[in-house]
Design a protein that fits this description.
By secondary structure, this protein is mainly alpha-helical. The protein has helices at about 20-50, 55-85, 90-125, 130-135, 135-160, 180-185, 190-225, 230-260, 265-275, 280-290, 295-310, and strands at about 10, 90, 170. A three-stranded mixed β-sheet has the order 2-1-3. Helix 1 (about 20-50) packs parallel to helix 10 (about 280-290), helix 3 runs antiparallel to helix 5 (about 135-160) and helix 8 (about 230-260) packs across helix 9. The protein is globular, with a radius of gyration of 21 Å. The protein starts with 8 loop residues before the first strand and ends with a helix.
């Protein structure tokens, strides 16, 4: 019987054992990863260099881009390497690190999405109070609370998960170390502390989600009173995609972590994991920035400036 003191590695689930499909998986993940890297790095560069973008909204956007860079780098590179070299192993320490950083960054990510919804609510529904409410100190404190809260949240879940004894093998039915799949390997059928932590986390996430929904309902009510059709279209084109990605992130995340785990791997588990861990970091730059005229004009100015410098 093996336990956590003798377990030195886990075996992650591959998308296929067919070599051609493994290469296809590598190429698809590589394209997604590079797209996410490029989009988020462009946002960070534009906001840091362009002083016109030194506002609360873009301050939070830079934090979100940094988190997205980290979260997509936790899962995808290891899966790509395993597909390329036809391997499935990850060390015990690597699995612990993967769980810690993924939960930390996902927690911070969702906290920032909630803060950004509040920022949009204040600027649209209470514009006269915006500078007082969203001052520099308040913005720094909000961002810091998101990062620190993510660390504490992750430490709780990581500690509870790896405090158990694993004696049901070392095969993880997922392409990264996911807590529900790891708990399937525990000697005990129930890890009450981690299950309790997951339920408590789901309550917090749902509360934040409700807060985001209520904020956007208030925003929509305010926007509908805007006489300019162009102004209404701009607000809706920004808010609706945001709500779509947040809803996808919350629903798939809760489904993955609270649904009863099956004894065998399923394609649904893989799809859900991709939807909450891979899609948001790739889509956030598109939704929050590439559709944003200020970001696009800033990138054009930066590009033009560099071309002029070269000439």
């Amino acid at each position: 019987m093996s336990n956590q003191t003798t377990l030195t590695q886990f075996l992650l689930l591959g998308f296929s054992e067919v070599r051609e499909l493994q290469i296809l998986h590598f190429v698809v993940f590589l394209v997604i990863y590079l797209a996410a890297l490029l989009g988020n790095i462009l946002i960070i560069t534009a906001v840091v260099i362009d002083h016109h973008l030194h506002t609360p909204m873009y301050f939070f956007l830079v934090n979100l881009s940094i988190i997205d860079l980290g979260s997509i780098s936790v899962t995808i590179p290891k899966s790509m390497v395993n597909s390329l070299i036809n391997s499935s192993s990850i060390s015990y320490a690597g699995c612990v690190a993967q769980v810690f950083f993924l939960i930390f960054l996902m927690g911070a990510d969702f906290s920032l999405l909630t803060i950004m919804a509040y920022d949009r609510y204040v600027v649209i529904c209470q514009p006269l109070h915006y500078e007082r409410v969203m001052n520099r100190r308040a913005c720094v404190q909000m961002a810091a609370s998101a990062w620190i809260g993510g660390i504490l949240y992750s430490a709780l879940h990581t500690g509870n998960t790896f405090a158990v004894t694993f004696c049901a093998g070392n095969i993880v039915d997922q392409f990264f170390c996911e807590i529900p799949q790891l708990l399937k390997l525990a000697c005990s059928d129930f890890n009450f502390s981690e299950i309790g932590a997951l339920i408590f986390s789901a309550c917090i996430v749902l509360s934040c989600f409700v807060f985001i929904i209520v904020s956007y309902v208030e925003i929509f009510n305010t926007v509908l009173r805007i006489p300019s059709e162009q102004g209404r279209h701009k607000a809706f084109s920004t808010c609706l995609p945001h709500l779509t990605v947040v809803s996808l992130f919350v629903c798939t995340g809760i489904f993955a972590y609270l649904k009863p785990t099956s004894s065998s791997a399923s394609a649904m588990d893989l799809v859900v994991a991709v939807l909450y861990s891979v899609v948001p970091p790739m889509m956030n730059p598109v939704i929050y920035s590439m559709r944003n005229k200020e970001i696009k004009s800033s990138l054009r100015r930066l590009t033009a400036g560099r071309l002029l410098t070269k000439n």
